[in-house]
Amino acid sequence: MNTAAATLPETPEPARAGANPARLLLAPLTYPLAAAAFALQFTVWMALRLLSQPEYAWVVLAGIVYVFRGNYWLLPLYAVESFLLVQVATFLFDVVHFVLHRMAESRSRLLRAIGAMHTMHHRFLDEELRIHDELRGANNTHHVLPEFATHVIVSLAAWPLLGPIPVARTLLLEVVTLARFFRAGGNDANHVAHPVVRATRPTLFVDTWYHSLHHVWPSEYYSSINAGFDRMFGYGCHVRGRRVALAGDAGVGAGAFGAELARLLARAGAVVTPFADGELRDLDVLVIAGGASAWRDELIERFRLATAGRRFPVEVWAIGGDREFAASGRRWYGDERLYYRHVVAPSGAGAGAARAAWFLIRRGFRYVPVDAAGLGLLGFFKFRFWTR
Ligand SMILES: [Zn+2]
Ligand SMILES: [Zn+2]
Prior knowledge:
The chain is α/β, with parallel strands linked by helices and 388 residues long. The protein has 16 helices and six strands.
């Protein structure tokens, strides 16, 4: 018996558009276009960030231009270069961060000893998000200063390429950040003993909620400032050991898409169970495919209430394709109480679409277009800015 279907309150027929073979043919473009979407969002975010920085930041930059006899007309270019330099330094630190984690698990005693430097950082803020004040000094010497040194080395290495002005601005920024960190007694926003961890709003950048998840599940969420590393290597969604149920059309065995997604999740270490209405409170991830939006919204709301007392955010992955689906998704997208992932897939989507969806989800994507790449990319902006 198919438990998934049997326990559902009359799953309505999905009102999705019919499969369009031409759109499915475009599916391989999903990956390069996902990268393009990331780059585009990154550029917009950078522009907003630079435009909203306080005036004194421009005055300081002008001062640096004066000292190094730069060209004042190139001020915006220096700002962009300096911004990108910080992002690259961060990315390289994230690579080091990842390698330190692997070293800590190595068989070689020497590598383990090097990896232990970073383990100290995780002991300082442990997996229950408790801060161990007695380790604060050790955290500063084993983690904070080496991270600072990595940024400084990368910045200096960029000097021959970018010239002194962007490098000087970046170094000044790093020093001011470090000084503020020590003035605050060795505290920063990413390391807080949060009693409850909220879902990060959809963004390409790391906030306190995102980094907290790295401390709770240290084998995922390695990124420290921008999410580039996790997006590139697939560490942006933790499912290992978490209970996942597939409801609606995604029910295990109900269609190639659901079956493949269940297989991929199980392979990633998730505990995949058939959907049972009474067990919502025990779930960590609820996957919903198809169904009318009223049914879907009601199910998500019940799941949210059943898990409202949780310390760490649960996830909802909704799969659909029609206009009603977009409107319902817009309601949940960006909700701070759960990670909502909006998977746009045509009806009749098969195993390939499930693989594309999992590829993007594990990279932290919240809008997951697997219908047709180019259209999917445009669809994001429509979904984000025009859907009511
Ligand atoms: Zn940390
Ligand atoms: Zn770590």
